[in-house]
Amino acid sequence: MKAYVYSPEGARISDVAQPKPKGTQVLVRVRACGLNRADTGMRKGHAHGAAGGVGTVLGMEWAGEVAELGPDAKGVKVGDRIMGSGGAAFAEYTLADHGRLFRAPSNMNFEEAATLPVALATMYNAVVMVGGVQAGQAVLIQGASSGVGLMAMQIAKLKGARLVIGSSTDAYRRGRLGEYGADLAVDSSDPKWVDEVLKATNREGVDLIVDQVSGQVANQNLAATKVKGRIVNVGRLGGTHADFNFDLHAARRISYIGVTFRTRTVEEVREIFDEVKKDIWGAVESRKLQLPIDKVYAFDDIDKAFEHMEANKHLGKIVVTL
Fold it and tell me: Where in this chain does the record put each Enoyl reductase (ER) domain (predicted)?
């Protein structure tokens, strides 16, 4: 089968053996894939958790059809339209754990379905399960114009947040955040953004920040969060190391929590997918929770899709079809 594989010469489309499902695995005939920021690093040979390196089939998000079931797989049957996340997505066939997939709603095509699994699981976990958002609270999403950021704002709004603030350093994308739940959009590269947040919250600060940037905004986040507020760190687009004001952190008694899928067990991931299905799946089926598709590429043009992502001018998801 065709797959996008990292080799000593870089990432390229290659012929590899079709995988065989074992245990609780499902074999998926992939029809569309969503690109994610972590894919750009793995395409250059970087590791993402335990995955990466020479011979790695790249990709982590897909939509398609069940082609075959492992002996212990439950909940789906051959031919079902599904979407999910996991390694080796950029291929004609991929394997998925039966607890790490969603049924693709009948009112979505495969391209639309491929935009959702990573954003839904990541941001439901960050905003609701870990962030503990409550109706009437104020929420700030750092890096809000990314696909997962756009989903985070929508989930916060769905759960009753009274004020949703999104950040983006790009003026065009900042101007679009209101379409996806933002009541206020701020430029996190402008030092005055903290004052804007405090002004919007009666000088108290927000109850919750979901931070995809970290790095240079870490101390500003502390100043923008209310006493006994919460910061959930889900990314490091602004760098992995920075100065940190421990005194301000202590003075504001902020709960600072890091989350990632890279170190989760399969049982932990299954729990997140189950909670999404139980709590917000109706909003997915009704299209209340959805993401824009910036551009669709054929699989043979996957390198062009990555060039488009690395140009960092897109809003929403970049999708590749097979």
Answer: 10-320
pLDDT of 86 > 70? The answer is: yes
- Tell me the C-alpha distance between 253 and 238, whole Å: 24
Number of domains in the chain: 2
Q: State which residues form the domain around 195.
A: 131-258
CA count, 13 A, side-chain hemisphere, 101: 30
Q: Which backbone phi and psi does 125 adopt, to 5 degrees?
A: -60, -45
Last residue of some domain: 209, 229, 258?
A: 258
Name 296's bridge partners.
319
Residue whose tokens read 């075959």: 68
Question: Is the domain of 191 the same as that of 245?
Answer: yes
Task: Specify the length of the chain in residues.
Answer: 322
The predicted-structure confidence for 270-315, as pLDDT tens digits, reads as follows 999 999 999 999 999 999 999 999 999 999 999 999 999 999 889 9
Q: Which of 258, 289, 313 is the endpoint of a domain?
A: 258
Q: What is the pLDDT of residues 139-188, one digit of tens each?
A: 999 999 999 999 999 999 999 999 999 999 999 999 999 999 999 999 99
Q: How many CB atoms lie within 10 A of CB 280?
A: 19
User: Which tokens belong to 29?
Assistant: 């005939």
Question: Are the CB atoms for 98 and 48 separated by under 8 Å?
Answer: no
**Phi/psi zone of residue 116: left (φ > 0), alpha (ψ -120 to 50 degrees), beta?**
alpha
